[in-house]
Each structure stands twice: as structure tokens, then as C-alpha cells.
Prior knowledge:
Two copies of one chain form a homodimer. By secondary structure, chain A is of the alpha/beta class. The first copy, chain A, has two domains: 2-51, Helicase, Ruva Protein, domain 3 (Orthogonal Bundle), CATH 1.10.8.420; 79-181 and 187-194, 3-Layer(aba) Sandwich (Dna Topoisomerase Vi A Subunit, Chain: A, domain 2), CATH 3.40.1360. Chain A is built from eight helices and six strands; from the N terminus they run αααββαβαβαβαβα. Chain A has helices spanning 5-15, 22-34, 39-53, 72-75, 90-99, 126-135, 149-161, 187-195; strands spanning 54-56, 63-65, 83-87, 105-108, 140-143, 168-171. Chain A is globular. In chain A, 30% of the residues are buried.
Amino acid sequence: MDHLAPLDNLVAALSRLPGIGRRTAERLAMALVQDRKGLMRILANALLEADDGLACCERCGSVTLSTRNPCELCTRPRKEARILCIVESPGDILKIEESGGFHGRYHALMGRISPMHGTGVADLRMDRLLERIADEGFEEVVLALGTDAESDATASYVRELLANRPVTVSRIAFGLPAGSAIEYSDAATLARALRGRQSM
Amino acid sequence: MDHLAPLDNLVAALSRLPGIGRRTAERLAMALVQDRKGLMRILANALLEADDGLACCERCGSVTLSTRNPCELCTRPRKEARILCIVESPGDILKIEESGGFHGRYHALMGRISPMHGTGVADLRMDRLLERIADEGFEEVVLALGTDAESDATASYVRELLANRPVTVSRIAFGLPAGSAIEYSDAATLARALRGRQSM
């Protein structure tokens, strides 16, 4: 059979997407080849436009328009501008904005401490964090990290890093998710919810 | 927050891929934006090259180079060139070629009869199939379709369609997959394997 180099290259490129294995990449490539509505070109153009039009904010790390860097979240007046929320990824910033539960500034670390994946402190945006703490007059830092061991390690590291800076450091609450019942909660969630009990 | 049109467009384009929901598309888009190795452009170029360089063979429907249509499978001498293997998709052709179990010609229907997905006989390559049966002198047609109800319906339709043509029609065997044990086989597989028993 002919060696179909363009097909092999497409499968290889798709395989580089996170969570897309070789099998899925092959399936997607075949679907793209068979598509009769020009999806291949639509997707290519969307990628090229995004590559030109989007950037990571040099300040907070959020996704922003290339023409607007630092981003709007960093530059527009915000009610809680003295509070800096530290997250792992730009996607987390979008999630927290959608929640409407925070009105301060953000800082994405672009990962978390993960020896297993070879991500160390030097790969995260810690230096930029210290610069910002020094320059932007934050009074409080909120760690909005996840609940697993790697996120815990990252949270501990940041707390130590900021120990002698003039900011208070807090971490978002862990407990029962909204709408859940004791009956269906797992042991770890319940234990954390009990430890974090609040007077009422 | 700024309306990030390029991000929205990228998510929308990725969502059109089969099996990729909105959530996954958002995750992929964020990963692409954060990627520092130029994956966005690599993928865009792979798509554009594939769009230019690949085509579906006008005869069998297999994926082929745009410069080679009809494809090599249709034009090169093949040991069993009198046998036509009918499959649902170009991907199935690649699978069967990899198996090394067939050396004839192929015909991809580009789908199967599926009222649920709005795919009817008119959407499949049945007219082209009849043309090929008339023109290419096949003696046998092998249906290499799956085992579910939609594939069964498609197989029945093709058998009827070819009832008064000068070809024998067969269907690939169903039974225990290689390396499997009775103990771990499901009832439907076992029932089909028993019905298809062969003298030895």
C-alpha cells in the first residue's frame, strides 16, 4: 500500500494532544479525512487564528488576546484587587471567573510540583510570583489548588515561600460539594469537611 | 473579561470532532494555548497538508494520496482480485489490510443503515457498488461488517440488493476472538460461535 505520509503526520500531531492516544488519533484522522464539510480546513484555520490571536498573559498567565497583554483581569479595576488567587492553570482562572466567587487578581503557576512528571519548582512561575508580591501590594494570597498530593505539595511550597512576605496566605475550603449528601460522600472528603468545620 | 473569539472558535472547531464533547474541546484548546513547543502550528500544518494531500478513493472509498486516485488497492494486481470486500469505513480497510487475511478489492459504504443517526441507504455508496459489480467482474462479495443491529440491517440490505447479480455473497465469521476462553465469552458471542460451527 502507498505510504500515506500526510495521514501519518496528522495522526502524529493529533497524538501529541493531552489525553489523545494513538488509537483515538487514528480515529480522529480518519473522521477528518472522511468529513465532507471541510472540517479539516476549519480546524486548521481556527488553530492558526488562535496561534496568532491568543497569548498567555505575561503577568497572571491567563489566556488573553495577543493585543492585550497584560490581560484585562490584571489591568481592569477589581473589587478585591488586594487579593491574589494562585491557581495551577489558565483554565482554572476561567472556572473561578465563571463561579463569580472571586473578584481579585490571579496568578497561574502553569503546573504543580510533580516529581513523577518531572515538574519541579523551577518549571513553575514562582519568581514571577515573588516579583508580583513585591510590586503589586497584595495583602492576601489565596491558594486555589486541588486536593491531591501534588497540589498539597505545591500549596506547602508556596506557603513556605511566602512565609516572610507581608501577605496572609489562605487556601480554599475543602468539604462537601454543593448539592451532595453525607451518604454519597467518600471518606477523604468527609474527613476534610469535618476538619474544616465552621461555627454557625 | 475580554471576549476571546479565537479561543471560542477553536473550542467550537474541536467540538465538531467525533467523540470530542465541549468539555474535552475546552481542555484541548487550553492545552494548545499553553503549549510552548508550537503544537498549535504543527497541528494546523498537518491538517492543511492532509487536506491537500489526501482524498477518498473514488472507487473503493479508501484513504489515498490525492495524486493517486483510484488508489493503489484498486489498481495494483491482487491475488484475490475477483473478491470484493464490503466494509463500513476506510478505517476498516486499513484494519483488514493490517490483518493480512484478505488480498482482494474493497468497497467502503461510508456508514451503515442507521435510522437513529439519520443514515439511510441513499447516504451509502450503494449505486457505486452496483456499478462496480457490473464493471469489474467480481465473483464473490464478502461483507465485513460488525455484529450490531445496524450492521446486520446493512448486511441484509446488501444481500437483497445483490440477490440477482452474478456474485456469491458471504459474511465474515462471528465467533470466539483469538486467544479467548469460553469462560470469559459473553452469551451473544457464544451463541453466534455455536451457530457458526464448522466440521473438522
